[in-house]
Design a protein that fits this description.
Elements (H helix, E strand, L loop, with lengths): L5 H9 L4 E8 L5 E8 L18 E6 L9 H5 L3 H4 L6 H5 L4
Antiparallel strand pairs: 1-2, 2-3
């Protein structure tokens, strides 16, 4: 795989762990999606008990350009999206009981 930059590759490798990771997916229409995901805790940690304030354990933001090198992601990775997909790491799947 030829990555657009080392930072993109490194954050792709971090997906599913605590901190900032990068996911590559397809939406319901088959269009590629590139998602920055931040996890407050490790993916295999149990859910937190009640807290006084609302707390997000996982946040996701869709992006179109690499935040580190500026390349348009769909152009760079468009034909490799299916190789890069890891749907079990998406927030929607976590809420359904995935890891």
């Amino acid at each position: 795989m030829k990555w657009c930059c080392e930072a993109f590759h490194g954050h792709y490798q971090m997906a599913g762990q605590r901190g900032l990771g990068l996911l590559v997916e397809r939406n319901a229409s088959g269009v590629s999606e590139f998602v920055l995901q931040f996890r407050a805790v490790e993916g295999d940690r149990p859910r937190l008990s009640h807290t006084e304030q609302p707390l997000s354990l996982v946040e996701e933001t869709q992006i179109r350009y690499c935040p580190w090198c500026g390349r348009q992601l769909d152009r760079w990775y468009g034909n490799k999206v299916d190789q890069l997909r890891r749907p079990n790491l998406r927030l929607a799947n976590l809420q359904d009981g995935g890891s």
